[in-house]
Amino acid sequence: MTPAASSLALIGDIHARSDALAAVLGAIGAAGIASGICTGDLVMRGPDPARCIARLRELGWPTVIGNTDRKIVAGDPRPPGHPASSRVGSRSWTFRQLDAEDLAWLEGLPGQVRVEFGGARVLVTHGDGDSLAVPITAQTSTREIERQLRKLDADVLVLGHTHEAMIRRVRNGIVVNPGAVGESRDPDWQPHWAWLEATPTGIVAHLEVVPTPLAPQRDDLPED
Question: Is the pTM of this model over 0.85?
Answer without folding.
Answer: yes
